């Protein structure tokens, strides 16, 4: 059972960590148009993260703003799902991660847009449109790569196999939160299975379902990501930028 | 009508040459070289700033910087498109860049060592770019002039953002202030060198002026830039690292120390601190993206094939 | 003489079986499996600690940790050498590991999330390893027993270093203290599970005991470990995260909550948090080193060839 | 002209940054024996760094100990040569870096062992023996890789080509320091050219001679290395470890 603060923080950290990983692609994309597209999606995620972190700080009521929450927590205090913190890998892995994240965020933000909490509803209404674009973009690439060349098919299937186990954590039931994640699974499955089928890809069978992100038990990757994200802010305590 | 005469008339009347028009081969070649170099500069220029996106010290600054670097990619695309109107493809130009046969602005061969460099690049490097580019909005070649109008608008936005970063640092903690001054010290002379060699040594200038591709000489633009910066540095409370800087009442302009043009030549020839790194970074991205581009092409071909079959069968 | 009877006599007399001696195939196979698993554990076990070398919070701690991880590589090499006396090569064993056909200790499938884990791994994980391994110094197979004597000395050194890290943290700032307790909370039950399933479910134990490879049961060793840790935790000022922990006067030992053996089984079968990561890391190092090993072999062959020629010509 | 403090700091930072890069290899070596060897060399460099940093702190007289100097300076204050901060690259690149570093450190520490400063002489006497081992180890690998397979030859030559320009900085003259770096060049050239010749490798021709490390003007790589090295120490100001 997550507190309201933890719930909002979880969504915020998903977006923040996803933005950071996507930003790592900047200047490294497979084509120039894709550099622009990935930066766009990173900016959307970052924008959502800022709204959600600000709101989380208000819910907490301890005077922490978006930067205090982003820059001054360590990895044991982050609440993002493990999926978003996984290293970027190749472009196929990044697209697998983005497909699964967007296919989760679209129904999540849609449900949030209709929830009783006015602030969360407003954030959800804004973010769901952006997520729909992310989903389109990732779906297109997953189809292109899955149904492209032999090499791209092999890479895309390997990426799906590697990332798929991390999707289960997204839907851990919690009926006490404004949107119970378990209720989003149907939408997710229907979208993802459609895309994978069109892409001539198969859903892997696995009984391994890693989790822990929502409780602050992360992979070994997150603390490196945060070291980089936070290094400058922490080196100058109290400074304005 | 004689196309040579028509071309000369258009230039004389300060009107625009358009892609469909006849133009001298040397005019075309000069433009391709210049626009391509400009496009490459936008693309390579993403790297020094891209270096600080993951470490930006606030989320707001991170968003601004990411959007800025994204804009640069966009500028690169407009400019490649402008070059393509001259009958050369983007792929050809990119290959020339990767083969080291076309250049990009030498300023991007210096490293970004601190966050303050994000401010200084905006203030000085984008500032110098604007001084260079504003006259290009009146360039005789239409597509280039129009691309520059759009780019200049965004560049001056970027310049203000950089200036604001520096202003915040210069009025922040002692460590931030020191970081800002150190950054200006490192970037001042390389920024002056962005205007190219002094007029006495400039090779392409005269013909470009005659064709109205170029409107002012390197030294005129450099002077304009110095005069602009001095007042801004005062507002920032930062020192321009030139002991020879002094107002010259007679000229109505600042006297200043020239950058080290020998260094500029060395950097242009490949011996700057980051030439190899920038090129290898770009080549690696291109190389590692090859399988993705191949997949996209294969997928498009399959879809096209399927569409054709569908049309035939219906 | 009947080799079977001779082997039985050596075992009965608590003497050592040596590589030259006859031994039952099942004894050999059991030892190969156990020693290999132990060697693999040393090699894979370098990863969770290796994860913090570059981030160690003082230069002294960095040196100690680096030396410790280096020792583990050394232990791996002794143990592979001990296994080789049984007629199997290190390369074969490494291939079995990389193919997922031999195991390593499941404890290394948990992530090291904070610096305090460097302390806890020393205190609890090395502590449990020592409790497991001290009896192996009297194992009936000579080369293994001798390797264990050497390893146990270094392990107890490591255990003291880990304890000292935790002691410093537990007596440091509130954040350090919290880091230490959090780490003990995460590693306690996985450490208890290092002794394997409860005796009622343990498959290989009886035969290993009869062969004097193993001297105590899983549950006996686990109890010894708990009894040892409770007092040490008190000195550290840290809490063992088991509300069921209580001294049992009658048994003269602590009652404690058993670890989740279903979790242990899942982790052994590959579903721990880091199984895939640990294996992929090892496979990648092996794969990326292939060209280096090939070069070393080619160079050695050339030198040998040259030496032969020299000998012939002189 | 470097102050005594800057001179000692330069040597200390060379060793510290080299140790950090070598430690990155830990668990990633091409064979297990090499994991041990690289850790050994990293430990030697780290040991020398600690002695030199402690001494630098004494020379400065401002109360900074080895950890204050290692963990609380930013990259603009580091005085190491650029060579040691370059990313590890493949094993050939690491061996090229190690060969050049050791071929510089052996005559450097030897000269230091005979210099008038008692403390520096003691450090030099200890470190030169270790450096001689590093030089042997790197030389052996450079010969193996240079004269091994076609692939290893290609990689080793590429590594030498990439790293060679950074060697010039090591020998920038400064007659005011206890050991003028310029005097070490003869030894370096004779050792290195011998090894490269045996390894069937050629010394590249280049007019590019990057420098700046001794003045705190580094490559973009160093600040990332320091972010990782310093993250934990900086996150807990004033704590003991």
Q: How far apart are the termini of chain A?
A: 37 Å
**The biggest beta sheet of chain B, please?**
2 strands, antiparallel
Instruction: Give a quick account of the main beta sheet of chain A: strands, pairing sense, barrel closure.
Output: none
Structural class of chain A: mainly alpha
Flag low-confidence runs of chain B: none
Average pLDDT level of chain B: 96
**Major sheet: arrangement of strands of chain B:** 1-2
Portion in beta strands of chain B:
under 5%
Structure description:
The complex is a heterotetramer, with two copies of chain A (241 residues) and two copies of chain B (314 residues). With 241 residues, chain A is mainly α. Chain A is 64% helix and 0% strand. Chain A has helices at residues 4-23, 32-60, 66-71, 82-85, 91-113, 118-146, 150-163, 185-198, 221-235. Chain B is built from 13 helices and two strands. In chain B, strands 1-2 form a two-stranded antiparallel ribbon. By secondary structure, chain B is mainly alpha-helical. Chain B starts with a helix and ends with a helix. Chain B is globular. Classes of the chains: A mainly alpha (241), B mainly alpha (314). At the A-B interface, helix 1, helix 2, helix 3, helix 6 and helix 7 of A face helix 3, helix 4, helix 7, helix 12 and helix 13 of B.
Based on the model shown, name its key terms.
heterotetramer; A: 241 residues; mainly alpha; 0% strand; B: 314 residues; two-stranded antiparallel ribbon; 13 helices
Task: Summarize it.
Chain A has 241 residues and is mostly helical. Helices cover 64% and strands 0% of the residues of chain A. Chains in contact: A-B, A-C, A-D, B-D, C-D.
Protein topology:
The complex is a heterotetramer, with 2 copies of chain A (241 residues) and 2 copies of chain B (314 residues).
Chain A lengths: L3 H20 L8 H29 L5 H6 L10 H4 L5 H23 L4 H29 L3 H14 L21 H14 L22 H15 L6
Helix pairs in contact in A: 1-2, 2-6, 5-6, 5-7, 5-8, 6-7
Chain B lengths: L2 H10 L12 H20 L1 H5 L8 H26 L5 H9 L17 H18 L8 H29 L3 H20 L11 H6 L7 H19 L9 E3 L4 E3 L5 H11 L3 H14 L1 H24 L1
Antiparallel strand pairs in B: 1-2
């Amino acid at each position: 059972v997550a507190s309201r603060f933890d719930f909002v923080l979880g969504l915020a950290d998903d977006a923040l960590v996803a933005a950071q990983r996507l930003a790592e692609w900047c200047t490294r994309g497979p084509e120039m148009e894709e550099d622009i597209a990935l930066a766009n999606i990173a900016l959307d995620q970052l924008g959502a993260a800022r709204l959600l972190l600000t709101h989380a700080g208000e819910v907490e009521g301890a005077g922490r703003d978006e930067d205090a929450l982003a820059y001054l927590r360590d990895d044991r205090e982050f609440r993002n799902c493990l999926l978003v913190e996984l290293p970027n890998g190749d472009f196929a892995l990044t697209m697998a991660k983005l497909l699964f994240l967007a296919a989760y965020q679209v129904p999540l933000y849609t449900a949030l847009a209709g929830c009783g909490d006015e602030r969360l509803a407003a954030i959800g209404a804004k973010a769901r449109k952006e997520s729909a674009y992310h989903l389109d973009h990732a779906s297109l690439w997953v189809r292109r790569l899955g149904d492209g060349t032999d090499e791209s098919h092999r890479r895309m299937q390997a990426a799906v196999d590697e990332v798929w186990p991390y999707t289960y954590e997204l839907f851990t039931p919690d009926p006490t939160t404004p949107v119970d994640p378990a209720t989003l699974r149907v939408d997710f499955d229907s979208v993802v299975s459609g895309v994978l089928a069109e892409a001539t890809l198969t859903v892997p069978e696995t009984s391994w379902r890693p989790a822990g992100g929502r409780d602050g038990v992360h992979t070994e990757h997150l603390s490196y990501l945060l070291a980089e994200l936070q290094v400058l802010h922490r080196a100058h305590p109290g400074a304005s930028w | 009508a004689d196309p040579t005469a028509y071309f000369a008339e258009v230039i004389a009347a300060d009107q625009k040459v358009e892609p469909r028009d006849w133009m001298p081969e040397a005019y075309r070649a000069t433009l391709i070289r210049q626009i391509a170099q400009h496009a490459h500069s936008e693309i390579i220029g993403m790297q020094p700033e891209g270096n600080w996106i993951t470490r930006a010290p606030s989320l707001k600054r991170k968003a601004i910087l990411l959007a800025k670097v994204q804009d640069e990619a966009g500028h690169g695309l407009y400019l490649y498109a402008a070059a393509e109107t001259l009958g050369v493809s983007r792929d050809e130009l990119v290959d020339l860049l990767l083969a080291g046969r076309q250049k990009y602005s030498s300023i991007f061969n210096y490293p970004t060592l601190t966050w303050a460099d994000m401010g200084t690049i905006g203030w000085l490097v984008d500032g110098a770019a604007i001084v260079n580019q504003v006259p290009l909005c009146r360039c005789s070649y239409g597509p280039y002039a129009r691309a520059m109008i759009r780019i200049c608008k965004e560049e001056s936005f970027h310049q203000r953002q950089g200036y604001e970063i520096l202003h915040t640092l210069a009025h922040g903690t002692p460590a931030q202030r020191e970081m800002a001054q150190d950054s200006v010290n490192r970037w001042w002379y390389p920024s002056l060198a962005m205007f190219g060699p002094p007029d006495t040594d400039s090779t392409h200038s005269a013909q470009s002026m005659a064709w109205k591709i170029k409107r002012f000489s390197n030294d005129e633009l450099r002077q304009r830039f110095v005069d602009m910066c001095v007042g801004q540095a005062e507002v920032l409370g930062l020192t321009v690292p030139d002991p020879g800087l002094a107002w010259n009442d007679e000229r109505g302009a600042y006297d200043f120390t020239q950058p080290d043009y020998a260094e500029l030549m060395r950097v242009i020839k490949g011996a700057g601190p980051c030439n190899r790194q920038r090129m290898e970074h770009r080549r690696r991205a291109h190389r590692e993206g090859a399988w993705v581009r191949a997949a996209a092409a294969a997928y498009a071909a399959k879809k096209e094939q399927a569409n054709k079959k569908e049309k035939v069968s219906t």
